[in-house]
Amino acid sequence: MVYSTNPDFKYTTDEEPEAELLPPARQQLRVWLDRKQRAGKVVTLVKGFVGPDADLQALARLLKNKCGVGGSAKEGEIIIQGDHRDRIVDILTQAGYGCKKAGA
Q1: Which helix (DSSP H) or strand (DSSP E) does residue 91 occupy?
Q2: Which residues is 98 bridged to in the sheet?
Q3: C-alpha of 68 from chain center
């Protein structure tokens, strides 16, 4: 923080405001399989979620419970342990999200 004697001084931060939550039908999620930097173990990634971190965590919890596996959600993506791409696409589609399989 900087002290200023200028009465018109506007304090600004480098923090970005959280994104507004898009309705599930307007979300464009991509479901990937990945094994890079994970000692050869396969994980399923869900990318493209637009919304606050609390909603991302709630969606990750739903997917982990439905698949019966562990995982995490951070930096706008959900990581689910194991190859559950088809099941996750079905779950997201039933929940009303727009999603597609991506990657090879």
Answers
A1: helix 85-94
A2: 28
A3: 19
Mean per-residue pLDDT for 79-96? 94
Per-position b or e across 27-62, b if 16+ CB within 10 A of its CB: bebebebeeeeeeeeebbbbbbbebeeebbeebbee
Nearest partner of 66 among 78, 52, 48, judged by Cα: 78
> What angle is formed at CA 39 by the lines to CA 99 and CA 41, rounded to 5 degrees?
40
Placement of tokens 């439905």 in the chain: 66
List all residues 6 or more positions away from 36 whose beta carbon is below 8 Å from its beta carbon: none
When pLDDT is cut at 50, 70 and 90, the band that residue 24 belongs to is confident
CB 49 within 8 A of CB 42: no
